[in-house]
Amino acid sequence: MPADPVAIARDLIRCRSITPQEGGALGYLQSVLATAGFTVHRMTFAEPGTTPVENLYARAGTEKPNLMFAGHTDVVPPGDETTWHHPPFAGELAGDKIYGRGAVDMKGGIACFVAAALDHLSAGGGKAKHGSISLLVTGDEEGVAVNGTIKMLQWAAERGETFDHCILGEPSNVEVLGDTIKAGRRGSLSGTLIVTGRQGHVAYPHRADNPIRGLVTLVTALQAPLDEGSAHFDPSHLEFTSVDVGNETVNLIPGQARARFNIRYNDCHSPIALKTLIERRAQTAVAGRVHYAFEWQPSNAEVFLTKPGPFTDLAIAAIAEVAGRKPKLSTSGGTSDARFITKYCPVLEFGLVGQTMHQVDECVPVADLATLTAIYRRIIEKYFG
Ligand SMILES: [Zn+2]
């Protein structure tokens, strides 16, 4: 009998794994996967200033190629639970949908690839007949993402594990299952612009130097377009998120003014080239008349693109055969753990429809769980076939 993604999804939703809590979700997966014949590793990673986080890596088979499915069992908090019509951690089935936090992001997606992987093993009598299939599941994706996928991949590399291709089961589809594969993500870079002037009495401005004037000039100059986009990406974009002077009095010219910003950038830029571009633009805009400095935040979200090729073609064909529509390749949206995986093997993101993620009454149609499981099964068959 094929594995049931609906039962697995409901069991996972019932685990209160609010990031960074494990909540029983990884323990549940461990027992399901070990029973089916997977070798399962559990590891907790920690770092000063962060909460230790539990993770899981399971593999069946020792041969190449190694096809990895990746995901996260941690979820964002439910908010005020009384506003939910179906409790966020009950896994209720109502009508033709399952409700709960993580239904689409991404316990539902995990349930589908676990079910497909279990079927693959039972078809081989509890073994992977060709190659290897592995599951990399973190409890640290919705949080700071420092004790999860990034460290698991390092741990795996140190053990000599290699990966050939990866499907990350994040909710990639926009409207309907099968409409979108994410084949890359923009990079994210944040900084603060600090303009320094001279504090003084507002009635004697000639004795002061108001940094707000310089800040306004610079903020305007830095909002010019960064590029026109590229073959696979929309144009890069810089957005100011805060302007701060911190002045509570009316008769004081402040000594310093700051503005924070974030840039979502495409494959026209490296982080270093982007910083240089921004700093040059500032220089040109004020031509030595304003004292300013940039503080750049460290970033672990660089732009990446999984170039079209046989693996992408295989995934598109599997989706088209099962769902009856050809997905488009997209690089939109925020960052995901794919930014870490891409350094080890080509990665595509394909999962459920993202419409209700992080919302009250997050839910997934039962039919979507069945279809996604069938798509993952088809990908596995084609990959090892
Ligand atoms: Zn997610």
Describe this structure as you would to a colleague.
With 385 residues, the chain is α+β, with helices and mostly antiparallel strands. Helices cover 29% and strands 24% of the residues. The chain is built from nine helices and 19 strands. Strands 1-2-6-3-7-18 form a six-stranded mixed sheet, sandwiched between helices. Strands 12-14-10-15 form a four-stranded antiparallel sheet. A hairpin with a 7-residue loop joins β1 (39-45) and β2 (53-60). α3 (107-123) packs across α9 (366-384), α5 packs across α6 (271-286) and α7 crosses α9. The two termini are 21 Å apart. Bound molecules: zinc ion (ZN).
List the helices and strands and how they pair.
Blueprint: H1 5-13, H2 25-36, E1 39-45, E2 53-60, E3 66-72, E4 93-94, E5 97-99, H3 107-123, E6 132-138, H4 149-158, E7 165-168, E8 180-182, E9 184-185, E10 187-196, E11 200-201, H5 211-222, E12 237-244, E13 252-253, E14 256-265, H6 271-286, E15 291-296, E16 304-305, H7 310-323, E17 328-330, H8 338-341, E18 347-349, E19 363-365, H9 366-384
Helix pairs in contact: 1-3, 3-9, 5-6, 7-9
Zinc ion (ZN) binds next to loops.
Give a concise summary.
It is built from nine helices and 19 strands.
The total count of helices amounts to: 9
- Coarse structural class: alpha+beta
Profile the largest sheet. Answer: 6 strands, mixed
In which range does the helix fraction lie? Answer: 25-40%
Proportion of beta-strand residues: 15-25%
